[in-house]
Amino acid sequence: MEKLLDLLSNEVGDAFEKAGYGRELGKVAVSNRPDLCEYQCNGSLAGAKLYKKAPLMIANDVAEVLKESKAFEKVEVCPPGFLNLNLDGEYLKDYLNRMATAPKFGLKEPEKKLKVIVDYGGPNVAKPLHVGHLRSAVIGESVKRIVRFMGHEAIGDIHLGDWGLQMGLIIAELKLRKPELPYFDDNFEGDYPEEAPFTISELEEIYPFASKKSKEDTEEGHAFKEEAMNCTFRLQSGVRGYRALWKHILKVSVTDLKRNYDNLNVSFDLWKGESDVHDIIPGMVKYMKDNGYAYLSDGALVVDVKEDTDTKEMPPCMILKSDGASLYNTTDLATIMDRMEKYHPDRMIYLTDKRQSLYFEQVFRCARKTKLVDEDTDLIHIGFGTVNGKDGTAFKTRDGGVQRLEYLIRDINDEMFKKISEGREMSEEEAKNTAKLVSLAAIKYGDLSNQPSKDYIFDIERFSSFEGDTGPYLLYTVVRIKSILKKYAGEVDIAKGLHKSESESEKKLGMQLATFNAMMEGAYEELAPNRICAYMYDLANAFNAFYHETKILSEENEEKKVGYLRLLKLVQEVMECCMDVLGFSAPEKM
How far is Cα 287 from Cα 290, in angstroms, rounded to an integer? Predict the structure, then answer.
């Protein structure tokens, strides 16, 4: 189904052509003067140079042809040659009726279906998720859903940090606390226990304790760090007991991560980590050496990624440190190589803090220079801003620590439960379930309504408000529509279709609905969930203006009432579709 603006541009393009001018001059845009008209075309101004004719004369010629058009109810020429256009209500009605019955509201399927990998997790094993993990999860999940909604295949990968020194630190500390465990006995040949020798709570206490100890400038601290590095080496070398213990760490941690991501309605198709590419790194390094891409610089193995067009310094991409150890660069390049071999993606999208933009520029250039990816494979980094407190600095707990994501969500749920429980006839269980849905919308919309690259203030009082540009306001709009439609369930057939708009507010609502496809295509092209948020807010405002000006419930004309209800149903369906793409949903009542 064609986008509305494309249809209108074709209509005006035809008119230009019939009047003796180029049809490319007929591009229609939403008016920047809504007090004068709904749409405008400025092609006559460009045509004046081409045809050496006054733009006003060209516009008048085209306007004369457009008198016969069924798309516009008003065509006016405004000096020096603008075409001011108002959409015909019957034309809009027909467009919306087709939209209402078409799959995905008429969104065109792609000519070529792409395979896209979205890398949007990045948590370290054995560490709890904190507020810093919020944006990668929320934005990444939405980007994945946008890609899928557009008809492409999207594969979400968490990309766990599960193979570095933090593993050695945990193992070294466990060895001190529980030396009797069989994992530390090199002579043990039996089966290791199925149950982990620690809980998630113990694991989350062990890592920061061990990390702090290894950084102490004391003899004990130095010895412990050396032991942790030795444990890391033994783990990566395949020592049986260490590998078994590592699997316990991974299993306990991933189980907890899944629970926390479930609370955010975030899921991954792949739960791969740095460890998954450990064994292919030597082959990748040999390939880079053998083909002359990598060379030694001060003992480290590097690849030059500088380009002639660079205006700023671009350091080489380091592949191995001088002691032969791998880095994040090494792991990320090996992961790209692995993904190309296993999945052959057309596009790989990475979501991290925007402060890592230079790092990803290096890695992407290195991947291209060393031909780890095909020439037509897109490598995209979405760098997001930070989540700040009301004071404008990084979001912290009251005691100044990093806020755990689990506790943040819990606190918001509790606060929302209090709000919903007050003055509403609802069971405790229903109130709790509703509070979770509303809280999730508050958190996600509060984040996604901002441009990804922008920092934003995490203001839960504003996010949880039922008024203004917030998630709960959008949910309340959908719940209001559900309530109206429920009153007429089984009494009227709202499948009969819409009727021609009779009021300005009804027409504005229909016109806002009609921009859905263009908006969704733009959100995909720019990988910008904030465009969907802006559309939903405008749609909710248009609906509420219509609702307050229209007597829907008391309308006596049955045909008109059915048209109103069908329009409401379409608003509900489009709103809920947008919410699903953003990763939240509306309750039945609030």
Answer: 5
Using an 8 Å Cβ cutoff, are 412 and 382 in contact? no
Please check whether residue 102 is in contact with residue 1, taking contact to mean a CB–CB distance below 8 angstroms: yes
DSSP state of 297: E
Q: Distance between alpha carbon 266 and the CA centroid of its chain, in Å?
A: 11
Rounded distance, CA 37 to CA 86, Å?
6
End-to-end CA distance of the chain: 35
Q: Measure the CA–CA gap between 511 and 526, rounded to whole angstroms.
A: 23
Structure tokens at 481: 């529509």
CB 46, CB 100: distance < 8 Å: no
pLDDT one-digit tens code per residue, 548-571: 999 988 888 888 988 999 999 999
Q: Which CATH class is domain 4-87?
A: alpha beta
What is the pairing mode between strands 39-41 and 82-87?
A: antiparallel
Which stretches of 24-92 are assigned E, i.e. beta strand? 29-30, 39-41, 72-78, 82-87
Query: Which residue shows structure tokens 């100044």?
Result: 400
| pTM of the predicted model as reported, rounded to 2 decimal places | 0.94
Q: Where are the domains of the chain?
A: 4-87, 165-263
Length of the chain: 590
Q: Which positions ≥6 away from 574 have C-beta within 8 Å?
A: 105, 513, 516, 539
- Helices in 389-515 by DSSP H: which ranges? 405-421, 428-448, 460-463, 471-487, 504-513
pLDDT per residue over 8-65, tens digit each? Answer: 999 999 999 999 999 999 999 999 999 999 999 999 999 999 999 999 999 999 999 9
- Helices 200-214 and 219-237 pack at an angle, to 10 degrees, of 120
DSSP helix, strand, coil percent of the chain (3-state; round to 5): 55, 10, 35
